[in-house]
Amino acid sequence: MAQYDLPLEQLRQYLPERKEEPDFDDFWRETISESLGRFEPPVFEEVDSGLKLLKTYDVTFSGYMGQKIKAWFIVPKDLKDELPCVVEFVGYGGGRGFPHDWLLYVCANFVHLVMDTRSQGSSWLKGDTPDYEPSHGPQYPGFMTRGILDPRTYYYRRVFTDAVMAVQSVAFLPGVDAKRIAVAGTSQGGGIALATAALAQGVKGLICDVPFLCHFERAVKLVDSMPYAEISSYCKVHPEQTETVFKTLSYFDGVNFAVRAKCPALFSVALMDDICPPSTIFAAYNYYAGPKRIEVYPFAGHEGGGSYHTRLKIQFLQEIFSLREV
């Protein structure tokens, strides 16, 4: 895949018009408040994962409207002091998988919560959490158009709220320094993390790798790859609903969350990414309200910076949590 989007110098200046409904903040305030009203401390049980140097816990926490969401919580075996926590969200189609899929952050001496994504987890990593909610009308196969004719029924209302409640829940888990919590994710996980950084209280850092769920209107016109093509395919069959579709999506657009998120952030973008177009990522990054930096990978696709970038993520977390001098 060749570079196909705007030149890098234009990407760095790209600030498209934001389309935001006047009740955006009220919508999310009421959504989160309703779920906080049904919050219960998480239930966690140590499990034998075969990882003898770590402790792994099977966690069930209260997500959207108190619905039960699964997660893995992984800590060093000989944990004595409270440690910073990374709350991580998974890419599209994946679930929480197995504990051995998530060794990076605990090996860097952080405690680590990995949230299962409701109803996903059958495309690659397995999942264990149902959606609980009815489908709310016709949809294109996948998750992008589930309940899309109303923001109150849209699938990602529940997912983003689950993510906020995951941050709320980690303070009740053993070994967590509740004053040092970061959110992280790649692709869909990056989009969820960006929304969570804007919506959750007490988030101290954001790792947002090649994020999905940003600048929807440009994305669906620029690429015909999945998952964005789920939206364009739906609108092809239902052209009379196109305006309603994009009105709903405006409540879930990473660009609109970016202007509200203020914690330090590390973004990444790949200029040959035909899943999440570079301009959609730069739109969110350029609007981001907090301290930020972005790593650009000119010859990478949706895999982003790979192992090279992993090193930078660890350094970023060490810096924001003041674990070493910078």
UniProtKB/TrEMBL annotation:
Substrate binds at residue 92. GO terms for molecular function: carboxylic ester hydrolase activity. It comes from the Bacteria. Residues 1-319 form the Acetyl xylan esterase domain. GO terms for biological process: polysaccharide metabolic process. InterPro entries: AB_hydrolase_fold, AXE1_dom, CE7. The active site is at residues 187, 273, 302. PANTHER family: CEPHALOSPORIN-C DEACETYLASE. This is Acetyl xylan esterase. It comes from Pseudothermotoga hypogea DSM 11164 = NBRC 106472.
